[in-house]
Each structure stands twice: as C-alpha cells, then as structure tokens.
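Can't paste images in this forum, so I'm doing it all in text. The chain is below; anyone willing to post the predicted structure tokens underneath?
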Amino acid sequence: MDYNPQELEADWRERWADDGRYEADPTTTTGPDDSETTFITVPYPYPSGGMHIGHARTYTVPDVYARYRRQQGDDVLFPMAWHVTGTPIIGAVERLEKREPKQLSVLQDTYNVSDAVLKDLETPMGYARHFIEEHYKSGMQSLGLSIDWRREFTTNDERYSKFITWQYETLRERGRLEKGLHPVKYCTEQENPVTTHDLLEGEDVEYQEYTLIKFTQAGSDSADSDSGDTVIPMATLRPETVRGVTNAYVDPEATYVEASVDGETWIISVEAAEKLELQDHAVDRDAAFSGENLVGERVTNPVTGDEILILPAAFVDSDSATGVVMSVPAHSPDDYLALQEAKTDRERLREFGIDPDEVDAIEPIAILDVEGYGEIPAKDAVESAGITDSTDPDLKAVTQSLYNAEFHTGRLHDEYGEYAGEVIEDVREELAAAYREEGAFGAMYDFPEPVISRAGGKVVVAYQDTWFLTYNDEDWKQAAKRVVETMDTTPENTRGEYTHTIDWLNEWPCIRNYGLGTRLPWDDDFVIEPLSDSTIYMAYYTIAHRLGDVPVDDLDRDFFDALFYGSEAVDGEADERALDLRAEWQYWYPVSQRFSANDLISNHLTFYLFHHAELFDEAEWPEGITIMGMGLLEGEKMSSSKGHVVLPGKAIADYGADTVRFFLLNSAEPWQDYDWRDEQVAGVEKQLRRFWNRSAELIEAGERSEDGGDGTAAESDPTPEALEHIDRWLLSKLQTTIETVTDALENAETRTASQAAFYGFEEHLKWYRRRTELDRPAAQWTLRHILETRLRLLAPFTPFLTNELHEQLTGTPAEDAPWPAVDAERISRRTETEERQIERLTDDIQDILSVTEQDPETIRIYVAADWKREVFETVRDTGTDVGQVMGEVMQNPALRERGNEVNQLVQDLVELVRGVDDDTLDAMAKIDERSTYETAAAFLEREFDATVECYAEDDANIDDPADRARKAVPFRPAIHIE
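Text version of the structure:
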C-alpha cells in the first residue's frame, strides 16, 4: 500500500460527504446536564479575505476535541457560520472598485483571484461568498473538519436577523439598552462608527481620556472665557505633573488654528479642532497658521502661574491630542532627553529667534518622591540605563518602568497642599477633578497611536447619540462574574482576565450608521454592530437547519420566546413549531467548549458571558472556553496585506491534510503561539509516511498469516505464558500512553496528547524492536494490538490516515471505533521498572565503549550485595533525610561496622530515590536485579557482540579481575569490559 495522501484524503472526504457523517441529530431525550452531548463552537470567520494557515489551526484544534468526544460515545455538534456584519467587506469592495493597488495585490497575489473573477467581488455579498466558498469552506473541508454543514448561515440572512431582533427587543425590555451621547471609534472616511473588526491598523488600540491643561498666553490671569484669554491646551495622562512643566513643544511645520471652543478662544492643531468638533464641543475655527508662529511664545501654567517657553520639535505629532506638548523633564525620560538635546542644538534655537542661554537655564522640576529613584527620577532612569539618545529603542521600557513606579509609590510634594504626601494611585482622579472644577483642566478623547479603518479612513474618537448596552450595570456585572466562576477556563490563568474585563467594561455602543447586518428593530436607520450581534449566535446553530421550514414573518417575538423560554413565556397558545425546535435547542445546549482567541477576551468573549447570563438560565451558561495562541510564519507575524501567509490549499497540496493538521496540533499547545516552518512541516510528512509504511507492512503480514485469510488478522489474544517480558512491557507502556492522551485531550492539550501517542510511543517501539525477535507470533500480535490502539488515539489528529489503516486492519474506520480504555490488568510498574533498568544498563555499557573505544569480548555485570539492598530498603521506608536514614541504618550492628562505606552508600541512594514516586519505589523493591539482567543477557550479547556474565557482588565464585564489583549500588550495577 503506497502512501498517497492527496488521493487517500480525497476518497475519505467523498465518503464523509456522501454519508453525511458529521450531521448531528438528537438521538435521545436528554437534559442540559447530560454528559452524552458535546457542543463545540469557534468564532465564525469574517470572510473579508482568504483563509490562511493561522485560521486552519483555529478550526483544527476544536475538530480534534470534537472527534475525541465522538469516540468517547458522545453526540457531538460542531457547526460553522459566516460573520458578514459591519463594514469591513463593504470597505474591501470600495477599495476594489477604486482598484487600489494594495487591495488588488492582496486579492490577486496573495489569494490568487483572477481578473475574470474580480467583477464578481464588486458587491458585498458577492465578495463574501467568494471567500466563503473558495477559501474558508473549501479549506475546512480539505482539512477534514467534522462540521455539520447543514447549519451554516451568514449574519445577513433574514432568519438570523429575526433572531437578533428578538435578542435586542428582549434586552431593551429588560433595561439593558439605553440611549445617549457616548464616545465611539469613528471612521472619518465613511463617517460611521467602527469596532475592532472594522479596523485595518490599530485593532488592539483603545482610546483614552486625556486631561487638557489650559495654559494661556503669557500675561493672562486665568483661563476664564470672560477675560478673553487665549487658551493653549496641552494633553496629558498624568495631570498630577502639572506643577513640573518646564516648557512646551510644537511642530513648526504643522498647521494650527485659533478657534472658539465652547466659548473660549483656543489655539490647537487643525486635526485637534476636527476631533473636538466630533466630541460634541462647539468649535468655530478662525485663523489658520504655521506652528512656527508659536515657537518662542510663552504660556502661563494655570496652576502655578509660571510662564514657560514654547520650543520647536519635529517629534511633535499635530494629529495627537491638541498638537501642543507640555514637557515634564523631571518625571518623563522622553522629556528629559528632549530637553538635553534642545539645549545642545543652539544654532537651531537661534534660527527660531530663541536665546539658547534661556533654554540652557531650564531645569527639571521634581513634584514627587518615588522609591528607587533619585531627586530627578527621569534623569536617574536614563543614566542608570545608559540611554543618551531619544531614539534609543530601550527608552520606551525605561519610561514605562518609571511611570509604573511613580503611579504606585510616588508621593506628592508639599506644593500640592491637601494632596501632599499622597500616593499618585490614590489621588490622581480626585486631584484632576478638583482642578477641572476650578476651570484649569478640560478633557478630550484620543488614541495613543494611529488607527485606520478597513475603508482606509482615519479613525478618531467621536461622540454619537447612540444606543448602548449597559455593561456598567452592577447586577449584570455580577451575573457575568458568576458565569466565569462556573465555567472551565483553559488555560486556568485566563480566568482572571474575564473578571478584569467585566470590571472595567462600561457602556458599549451597539449600533452603526450603516453596514451589513440586522437593523435596529425600533429604528431601522441603524445597524447592530458586529460584536453586538455575535453574542449568542451559538444558540442559533442548534435550530438553524430547521428554520427554513418556518416562514420569515412567523419568526416574531412570541416564536423565539416560546423556543427559548417555553410555552409559559407567551400569552395564548405557543407555536408548536417553536416548541419542537426548543427540544433540539435543549438537547445541545449549553456550549460545552468554545475555542477562541486570547485578544477576544477583552470584547467578544466577555460579551458572550454577559448575554448568556442575562438571556438564559444557569443550566444554559457556557461550560468552558479554551484560548488560542497566535501563529508565526518562519519566525515572523503572518500578514495577508504583506503576502506573508501560507494558504491551506497549497500546504495540503504540498504535504497532505494529515501532515498540516499534525504539525499545527503538535507544534504547541493551543493557547501557545506556534511557528509554521516549511522544513519542519516536511519533516512531519516524512514521519507520517514512515508510520504508514510500517503499519502497512504489519497489516500485510497479518493478512498473510494463517488466521488472517479474510484480511482482518483475526488472531486471538495470546495466553499470558506466550507473552514475553518485553511484550508485557510494551503493553504496559501502552496503558500509560492511553491515560496520558486521554487526560490531555480532556484539557484540550493537543501537543501533549499527540506527542505521547506518536513521538513518545515511537521511542518505545524503537526500543522494543531492538529488544525482541519480531517474527514471534506473540510479538506480531502485540504489534498489531498496539497499532490498532494507536490508530484510535491518533484518529482525532490525522483522521484520513488512521481511518484508512484501521479499516484495513479491523474492517472499521478508526473514528467509528471506541476510544481506547486503560486495561488495568496490563499495567505493571514492576515490568516497566525492570525494563528501565535494562535500558539504563545498555546505555551505561554503550557510554563506556564510546569513551574507551573497546571492541568487547566479555561484559561483566555486578549487582550490589544483599547488605546494600538492605540499606536501600531503609532509604525507601525512611525518606531522603540523610541524617534520619543514618540513624536507622546504624542501629544494625553489621552495617554500623562498615562505617564510611555505609555513609557514602546512603548518600548515593538518597540521591537515587529523590523525586521517585512511591509506586515506582514499591516496584523497585520487588525487583530481583540479577534475574532481570540475566533475562536480558541474550539481548545484550546481540547488541554488543560479546559474552555477558552476571554476578552478585557477594557471590563466592565471582569473576572480578578489575575489582569493580564493590562499586555496585542497588539499581546501578558495576560494569567491567574486556
């Protein structure tokens, strides 16, 4: 049987499709707590581009769990759908229609879209359908994902929209939706709010509320609008540093404006004026001018009354906050270095009409004391780190370290009056509020770095009169926390991340002005945004394939109330169709395990918990979430826009789906990052091919045997007497492997499980092949039994290969065979321990031969004397405290006479048993070492082509020409080679 993965896999895909193999239907009447059903979900893909190898891992890990649970006897539902809500697909279509070079490159160079097909992509759903069918769905099918395709839908389907309508009508009725002004991420290109899924750059960037310190032109007395003073506001996240400001910076080449802002005259960058206008400020722009006009001007600190100088700086970004930056060189390493560099650039200062000596006289002003730093913390921080240049890449880490220290331990100086001596962490908000009330401070929202939408527009923070979900409701937060308490989180350390997200979540704007998706039921000018319509769609999977029989107009509030809450939830008679669907929903729900990305904890996954807590009873709350890591490609982050991706179709064509799956599952645990490297993937393909070839040879040998004429190798189990020690050892190792793989898959540890089932056991087989005559009937039976069991263990990982081999071996595909159970009768710690001693002895002999470069004629093995074994028993019973062991041993007069010899032996044995578990120690106590080595003598003679002799150290007829026997220690025999 030659191994041709592409042909083999095509055959199995066809069989699965023809048989509807993974179409899951209820088989029994069951309640929500019944363990015989497993419902697995993953985030449905957003088809604004093609599927790459990183996506392949995201969907293959849950497939392993699904296949494992089926072999355990569960009814398993693993569905898939397509998320098209929002604007990313619309943005992609718009960029395509404009024939933007970058967009065309992604489509044609990365995803191989031909010129003839491009036209089909010029409508949003045409675009989506192309990538659904040609990339995601075909890729998933090629990978052999065990999905029930009957249940697929898009979030633009009219029946799904009815389901979302029900959800939002219910949430509004329960007071979980409110309307009001709220800061949102806003695309200036599309003039539309956006969320994470709508972003091309800055997906992980969140907006922040900056404090605006209202500096005024020098000579003014206050920032009060009635005085007519001109305000030059400067933004900061550290308002407590206002007393430490020594100077300011502007970009001399940027454009600034004088504008009326809420009745005050402000000077800000033109970009800041646009942002403030979007944040519900009354902005009336007047004169525009170059930032050069501000250089050399002086402004007054509204808190201290000090005048400070405005300096030129190319590092100022006019698109960041107000475009004017205040400098606190005592507490900001960046500002400290910038000031030092400004002082040295005297010629440039003169060009702007600034006296260099005046700048040279500027000194940092410390406003707090912080543990671990000197009087001027920023100076201390950069000098300790050896940083002298503001472009040093280490500066960011040094700055963050100082900021953290000052926030948690920095105590304010006496100038802060009632706040003097207080730690920043405790008073920052209160201090800022006090100055805001005095009129010295204002506020604005902005991003700390650029954010770009998928439409190519700049994203800013804007106030919108919007509907938002009230995630800040304390009772809702507490309900979401109860979900976290009741569910499994993998890895466990992510549990706190959910709780943290629940704590800081505030109102969440849930509508957009336009885009694909469900219209807000009571105001169809708006669309429910992507993260808000993807919170309970898992429930829709359970009935999606049957809703087609129900007219769309019948899917009203009463229908879904009856479906999810029962007949008593509606007035009058409940729709029987809804109650019928309710039975299927209850059969599958809750979600047993959701596999998702770590970065979704801060939004989608926590929303998922909130909405389940509100809309469903505890019995229907999620049971577990497993977090997935990120993928690298040859050591670098994958990027579709840069063409740095591997498409699953190509990888499968090159290596086969089983190889692709096995590499993705074996290279790291699901929550860890992994690195796709072609050389390593090719290595996996060779290992699977070798496994196939050896398995095929064994199957063919069985078919030729007398009892295997029907091709099933139907030899009965050999009697215990027919099995040799080495057979029993391998069968015992098999039980340990079954246990390891099972425990690992219960926790979705795909690397641990696949390593044990494949690589770990291959090492056992390698040793077994060295140790025994493989033609023995008992050995052949052992190997076939081992193969059958391993094929079942590996079936979730490499379903094509294992199904084929298992069917040829037994007549049944591996996935249809039950999951192997541990056979306690075949577990023998003593046998395993004996064999480990033989293996160690073999290695010790080989090490000696490697060092001495001998060609041995005779190998003599010396087992420790009985008195040494007696000392071992004492160590086993007493423990690893040398003093305590010696106290016990010295009570024996015969041992006491041996003095230092016993003392050294005790230390050797304590080191030997340290860390060894009790079961292994018990097994060691039962071993007859000499007999163990004698039974392996024939093997050792074959292995080293030498005569092997075995003696006890205290044998009367011992042959010990080199006086080696006295060096023997229990379980560490002495060796002599000549």
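The CA atoms of residues 262 and 907 lie 83 Å apart. The first strand starts at residue 37 and ends at 41.
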